[in-house]
Amino acid sequence: MSEHEDNWHALTTAEVFARLRSGPEGLSDREAVRRLERHGPNRIPEAKTAGPLRRLLRQFDDILIHVLLVAAAITAMLGHWADAGVILGVVVINALIGFVQEGRAENALAAIRGLLTPKTTVLRDGQRTERAVEELVPGDVVLLQPGDRVPADLRLFRVHGLQLQEATLTGESMAVEKHTAPLDPDTPLADRANLAFAGTLVVAGQGEGVVVATGEETELGRISTMMREVRTLTTPLLRQMRRFGKRLTWVILLMSALAFVFGIGLRQMPVSDMFLIAVGLAVAAIPEGLPAILTITLAIGVQRMARRNAIIRRLPAVETLGAVSVICTDKTGTLTRNEMTVRRVRMAGCDCRVEGVGYDPHGRVLQDGEVLSPERSPALGELARAMALCNDATLDEAEQGWRVIGDPLEGALLVFCLKLGLDPDRERERYPRVDVIPFDPAYRFMATLHHDHEGTHFVLLKGAPEVVLERCVRQRTATGEAALDRSRWTVALEALASEGLRLLAVARRDWSGPKSELLFDDVAGDFVLLGVVGMIDPPREEAVEAVQRCHEAGIRVKMITGDHAVTALAIARQLGLATQQGALTGNELDALDDASLRSRAMAVDVFARTSPGHKLRLVEALQAQGAVVAMTGDGVNDAPALRRADVGIAMGRGGTEAAREAAEMVLADDNFASIVHAVHEGRTVYDNLRKALLFILPTNGAEALILLAALLLGLVMPISALQVLWVNMVTAVTLALALAFEAAEPDI
Q1: Which of 64, 276, 491, 648 has the fewest C-beta atoms lying within 10 Å of its C-beta?
Q2: Cα-Cα-Cα-Cα dihedral of 5, 8, 11, 16, to 10°?
Q3: Phi, psi of 579 (to 5 degrees)
Q4: What integer pLDDT is reported at residue 231 of this predicted model?
């Protein structure tokens, strides 16, 4: 039996049960025990992590530190304990600074493991029972209720209005409607609506599913495996510092060796004195104050960035931000508002545009520059009334602004009603709901039955345009009704879809007599099409300006989203991203080898229908081209790419704990513009560090030359190793600190 499959979504439920040798009644306890022995417990294995002692010892793995440790040992053997103690003190302080900054990857893995709940409801021997999540095996039948966290990857076979919040996995905030029908084998991961993934949350409805993957075989487990395997890159500054350290070490060793030979061979000086002189030369040439300057300068950058809503979790990330050449960013909530907004309304003979963005109900509905209202356009008023009635959402005005309780798409319809001047609450009182057929992805519509307190009943239908249109025979016009012009509506829908809008059609059917129950036969046909609504999650205004600033600074912005390519390109055009190369989809990414992806990754700025593996491959491809990559993310699926990126940026408001733990920076306001501010501060920090280095290194060089000149001239050593350390750690650091507080240069 092979449970590790990628095509469970393409099989019928009968085929799934046959392949798993299970059934709707679940497994027997005896069979479950056998499978548990074979497959192991349903848990994500913990990664082997370095203990505190090993992490502390790693801080001494630096060639300049090795030189200082040898110098301290020699000084101690010669009985100069004060000098040796000060040298060791400097080394230990630097090690403690690095030690405190480590351990984030282990925390990220712990956050992922915490997404699995301890208990779940299953069918065993046909009986409903609770079992520990770790005991689940492929073939188990799991029952889902609102509030449950999905315990393993499931193939659903019964659903009733089931909706899952998959933000922990995909980063998309809208609940996903689930169904049981088989899908095309090439369906992207984000569109596999007949699967329920481990770690996602049930927000509405009920469902039953059979376990198809547990532990590391789940999508969540695969992400955890990627997290353990991903190698974290060092920052550009640290790489440069290591190269510089190696070169400086060879210069120091050569200079000290030549001085030692010269003193013993030509000056006939005692060996112990020459050891001290050689140590003094080494200590003088090594910029011991540099780590302190580095830490203080980066800390100043952290404080400045925090004032711009960018919280730095690891100090070197401040400098790396200044070197970023590519920003890979999510669309929803980062570049866009994450608030669906009605932009277009199309009726027979009427094409309206809607002002305003987000859930704020301030704005106008316009046709050819004329402001519309229910009184001026009764047909549009009837459409808005249907939007308000065939709707389960509510709008709430809070201190932070307007928010939607319910589905964001339905919330956008209510906002449109208020902009038109129609009060949804008042309409719901005038036309109470009698019955409802809830929305279901299987039939892609919602229908409601209403009455007007005077015995008249009518049915409203809202759903996918192609589904609603096939049930319509007439269309509402400004003067009444007319036969439905299907060809014209087909052209209109294609035009709206090309703008990246999400479309909903609304229709009405009047009922001649009293009615108390709404059946599927009642919505089979004979409807009047009222109109079609086009919605989009609009870009943040500040994001448009931020993208332009990035381009002016030579930084490429690449949008990575789970949305369809048409929607992604529409948003990209509004943001000012390059769209000449079109959008690269997840399926197209899978077809490219690593070499081809490297060239395409640099050329294309829009990536659609992506999965966790795609994001990680994109980051690696861009880095292979020499780019310094910043990557934003909010879901568990983003954690591997966040860790691999030179700078991982997590969302503070909507992000998961796993994403925040894997990232170097957290955005307090989930706003792309804050990233641009942080990059500006990073460049300022990098520039100030360069100034500090140009000040400190000549100071060290001068000290070493003074000692070398005294030896060559046969003079008494003018300064001891302890005094050199005092100059390096106090005087030089104090003067260099002023450079750390420098304001940004005009051309930064």
Answers
A1: 491
A2: 80
A3: -125, 5
A4: 58
Residue-range domains of the chain with CATH: 8-43+118-217 (2.70.150.10), 52-111+239-297+683-740 (1.20.1110.10), 309-336+540-680 (3.40.50.1000), 341-536 (3.40.1110.10)
Q: What span, in angstroms and rounded, lies between the C-alpha atoms of 459 and 183?
A: 31
Closest residue by Cα to residue 15 from 146, 174, 210, 232: 210
pLDDT of 267 > 70? The answer is: yes
Write the pLDDT tens digit of every residue in 697-715: 888 888 888 888 888 887 7
Q: Are 671 and 542 in contact (CB under 8 A)?
A: yes
Question: Are 484 and 473 spatial neighbours (Cβ–Cβ below 8 Å)?
Answer: yes
Residue 539 has pLDDT above 50, yes or no: yes
Per the model's pLDDT, the better-predicted residue between 52 and 116 turns out to be 52
Across the range 402-410, mean pLDDT stands at: 88
Instruction: Give alpha helix (H) positions in 440-561.
Output: 465-469, 486-498, 541-552
Contact 428, 389 (CB under 8 A): yes
What 3 state SS string does 583-595 have? Answer: EEEHHHHHCCCHH
pTM of the model: 0.70
Kindly indicate the confidence band of residue 524, based on its pLDDT and cuts at 50, 70 and 90: very high
pLDDT of 371: 96
3-state secondary structure of 537: coil
Band (pLDDT 50/70/90 cuts) for residue 279 is confident
392 is catalytic: no
How many CB atoms are located within 10 Å of the residue 499 CB?
16
Given phi > 0 = left and psi -120 to 50 = alpha, else beta, which region is 242? alpha
Which residues does residue 213 pair with via DSSP β-bridges, in sequence order? 153
Picking from 504, 403, 399, 405, the residue whose alpha carbon sits closest to that of residue 461 is 504
Write the CA distances from 165 to 201, 269, 407, 657, integer angstroms: 5, 78, 12, 16
Residue 593 backbone class (left: φ over 0; alpha: ψ -120 to 50; beta: rest): beta
If phi > 0 it is left, if psi is from -120 to 50 it is alpha, else beta; for residue 220 that is: alpha
CA distances from 283 to 246, 249, 707, 708 (A): 15, 11, 11, 13
Contact 604, 622 (CB under 8 A): no
Q: Which residue in 140, 330, 407, 563 is the catalytic one?
A: 330
DSSP state of 68: H
Q: Is the Cβ–Cβ distance between 121 and 26 less than 8 Å?
A: no
Nearest alpha carbon to residue 61 among 209, 217, 234, 188? 234
